[in-house]
């Protein structure tokens, strides 16, 4: 069953240069949810040592405090995006946001490691529904063009701010108590939920004949869940172990089954034809590389600053603040910049800045200074995300019909989460292999440098894809439209010839 969603009579209008207070309120509510979703990806990072000590968790168990959220988030995004299209974006958003608030509260109160991981997984699942629902509400509420670009720039910059502010807030809150990293989102989520009930437009739904792709939902969700689980567990089991290789084989078989089902389903979970849109396909690859590289880089930086340089949680929060501040301050200006230069130009600039930030950090040593190493990388990181993150989300939904905006949103968010899990797992494996289990400063550096080189190369792949997309767009724009041929042998040929020559 498919659902065509029409705006209600009281839906806020996006026409005109100025938005109504209600429209601004709608956007702020959606931005708050996106900020929380992105924040939770990284906010527990600095708190992990305190959590492990307080709850007596081993290192292998402790990693699931992070991986549990990513598993739920990345594994169910496709289902969440399609559910928003079929069940109603407003309904899905409100229910998922309520679950997010409840799971945050539970996570801050429990005293058992298993319950904490379960709460994190449930938060990830809820984020898998709020993220695509919120993004598709924006793309179906704001008309394509300057209004949508402006709204998406603000929205995605809030997401990038949450992603980068995670470590900053984690450092500040952990200095008070690690439970606050779980409890802080609760009042924000509840406040956003109250305003969302009042402000989000109530659509008038016209249900057309159709059906749910149950088999596609099962195979697609199982593929992503098992992929994220496998790359996360490979750190402990070994990348070439029978367990990891067997799991990867099952992932490949599930992926093949998913593609087979989607190519034949009457109402597929993922219409494969959406990838014929070059902008959508390239944006998903860039999103995978961009956020994956950042996830691996963030992990290396956290270990380096805390373990090798001996920074406290508060020092880390303040040291990483410039990147987050640049991203947050850029929000009001990115809409006009995207309108003027286009995503095709801004994406390569953003990726180039990220590559430079990661490559610059390769100079790390036992006595690196903040002004000489950390600060320049943070500034480049802030500039890169300010340009690239809004652009990649706009490109990922560009040219997609309203009935598939949830799908497009789910795809790009899946690319973001799976990219983070896969590249982070690869970076962790390189750190372990490079250090050979040693704790000396030189052994740690021998682990950090290959991991940094790896994330730099991943970001470079994203840069190449973004640059290729810019060239395609430029060639398409410079190619003149074909002139139709006319049959001049018929009556009136003289007038017809003169008309065509005039048009030329």
From TrEMBL:
Transmembrane segments: 23-49, 61-80, 92-110, 122-142, 154-174, 180-200, 212-232, 244-262, 283-305, 311-334, 346-364, 370-389, 410-431, 451-472
GO BP terms, alphabetized: response to antibiotic
Membrane topology: Multi-pass membrane protein
Keyword Nucleotide-binding: no
Localisation per UniProt entry: Cell membrane
GO MF terms, alphabetically ordered: transmembrane transporter activity
CDD domains xrefs: MFS_MMR_MDR_like
Chain segments carrying region Disordered: 478-504
Pfam families in the record: MFS_1 (PF07690)
CC annotations in GO: plasma membrane
Protein keywords: Antibiotic resistance, Cell membrane, Membrane, Transmembrane, Transmembrane helix, Transport
Major facilitator superfamily (MFS) profile domain ranges (all copies): 26-476
Designated name of the protein: MFS transporter
Species in which this protein is naturally found: Kitasatospora xanthocidica
Upper classification of the organism: Bacteria, Bacillati, Actinomycetota, Actinomycetes, Kitasatosporales
């Amino acid at each position: 069953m498919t659902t065509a969603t029409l705006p209600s009579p009281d839906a806020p209008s996006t026409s005109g240069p100025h938005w109504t207070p209600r429209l601004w309120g709608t956007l702020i509510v959606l931005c708050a949810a996106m900020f929380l979703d992105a924040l939770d990806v990284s906010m527990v990072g600095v708190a992990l040592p305190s959590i492990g000590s307080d709850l007596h968790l081993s290192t292998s168990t402790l990693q699931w405090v992070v991986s549990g959220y990513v598993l739920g988030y990345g594994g169910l995004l496709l289902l969440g995006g399609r559910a928003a299209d079929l069940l109603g974006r407003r309904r899905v958003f409100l229910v998922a946001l309520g679950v997010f608030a409840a799971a945050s509260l539970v996570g801050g109160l429990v005293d058992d490691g298993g319950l904490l991981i379960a709460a994190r997984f449930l938060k990830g699942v809820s984020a898998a529904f709020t993220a695509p629902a919120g993004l598709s509400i924006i793309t179906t509420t704001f008309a394509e063009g300057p209004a949508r670009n402006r709204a998406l720039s603000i929205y995605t910059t809030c997401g990038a701010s949450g992603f980068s502010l995670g470590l900053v807030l984690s450092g500040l809150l952990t200095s008070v108590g690690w439970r606050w990293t779980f409890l802080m989102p609760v009042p924000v989520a509840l406040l956003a939920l109250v305003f969302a009930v009042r402000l989000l437009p109530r659509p008038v739904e016209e249900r057309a004949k159709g059906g749910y792709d149950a088999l596609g939902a099962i195979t697609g969700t199982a593929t992503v869940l098992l992929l994220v689980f496998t790359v996360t567990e490979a750190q402990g089991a070994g990348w070439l172990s029978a367990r990891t290789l067997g799991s990867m084989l099952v992932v490949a078989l599930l992926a093949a089954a998913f593609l087979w089902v989607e190519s034949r389903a009457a109402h597929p979970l993922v219409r494969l034809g959406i990838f014929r849109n070059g902008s959508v396909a390239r944006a998903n690859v860039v999103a995978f590389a961009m956020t994956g590289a950042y996830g691996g880089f963030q992990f290396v930086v956290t270990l380096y600053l805390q373990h090798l340089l001996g920074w406290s949680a508060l020092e880390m929060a303040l040291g990483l603040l410039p990147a987050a501040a640049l991203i947050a301050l850029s929000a009001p200006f990115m809409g006009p910049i995207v309108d003027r230069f286009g995503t095709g130009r801004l994406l390569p600039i953003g990726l180039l800045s990220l590559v430079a930030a990661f490559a610059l950090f390769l100079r790390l040593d036992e006595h690196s200074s903040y002004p000489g190493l950390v600060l320049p990388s943070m500034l480049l990181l802030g500039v890169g995300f300010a340009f690239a993150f809004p652009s990649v989300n706009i490109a990922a939904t560009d040219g997609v019909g309203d009935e598939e905006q949830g799908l497009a949103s789910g795809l790009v968010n899946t690319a973001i989460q799976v990219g983070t899990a896969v590249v982070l797992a690869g970076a962790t494996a390189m750190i372990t292999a490079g250090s050979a289990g040693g704790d000396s400063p030189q052994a740690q550096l021998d682990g950090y440098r290959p991991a940094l080189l790896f994330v730099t190369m991943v970001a470079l792949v994203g840069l190449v894809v973004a640059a290729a997309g810019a060239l395609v767009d430029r060639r398409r724009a410079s190619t003149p439209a074909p002139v139709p041929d006319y049959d001049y042998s018929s009556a009136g040929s003289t007038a017809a010839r003169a008309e065509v020559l005039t048009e030329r």
